[in-house]
């Protein structure tokens, strides 16, 4: 490690550059692994924080309207689970905020004033969500049903706003705006221009829809298992149909948003798109390659659709797609990982869309025959796949973030700062990784335990004509 730095700014800058240059590959890998694992863990809770309040309010409103106790109980259980997940998410989010400063001082030290605005606004949204969540949980039996329902509206709005502000900060890393660099120093900072950058609209829409789908399909998958075990009462049918239907409705919009995001890359981050699709040479009539892996400067063993990528990018087979040859090799992203992650995300999205179409066909058949939806006869294959839809949505979410983050490599701020220039040069980052893994393992076990205990607190009311059912986990 270098010696202590001179307090003079120029000397300090030289000292920091020397320290960053001394970072070992192991330290950089440990920092990336720690941040990646923390984000992968937290993002699932963040998605539930966006989608679960909307589901809860929707079921509560339906229960108020119909007067059915099953619906009110379903909403109350989801609300309790929502409170637990919010508390755990607050802990993991706090860990992430510390990791930004500890692991990446080069980024935050230079650009903190540029991207501080969305994080500050996210803090306000977080406190609004926390305040009204407390009111919503505490006032369940203390306010009239309609008044209680209104107290949940700010939770939904604040949850979506939190996701929006955080993703705006990430979008800035893909399209840095709102500052100028003079001799390595940040000048003329415009925080609003930085937050509302060109990548913000497609990235925020894509992420918010993904969060809604993860929350919906993950919740519905639990009740799909219950239905497979024979619990076909109103409580469990509603617990499955409400989130699954909402997730199915969001699926086609998500595919359209994904297409918007991909065409955005073609114009603003062509090298990321080239890495995603394994395009090495700039040319027209570029095929769309499914699967395969990078070997040298080509994708091997992939299924090619002639002119497919050119058609998707510019709606014409003659559209020119820029290739990785336009930048030095040390600026290429890891093509195999990014490409396969993208294919997995798109494949799972298509599967979820198909499941929505299948549910629509089941609804149409039940209307035609006059039978109840999701009767035991003939629906078992659908429910088996529906039970897998929740975990599949989580996998698609994680793959999408791999595409976003790995596709930007080696840049932490696109075209401005490399990841290796932002990492903390101090030793011991590997030890921090192991500590974080232990902390998250404990939080995972504790969260699962508490959620399972919550499912055994209140019996499920059923209509007299329905047979008795046993308790089943809600989330």
TrEMBL record:
Main localization (coarse): membrane
Membrane topology category: Multi-pass membrane protein
The keyword Transmembrane appears for this protein: yes
Keywords associated with the record: Cell membrane, Electron transport, Heme, Iron, Membrane, Metal-binding, Transmembrane, Transmembrane helix, Transport
Superkingdom as given in the UniProt entry: Bacteria
Similarity comment: family membership: Belongs to the cytochrome ubiquinol oxidase subunit 1 family.
Name assigned to this protein: Cytochrome ubiquinol oxidase subunit I
Organism annotation: Streptomyces tremellae
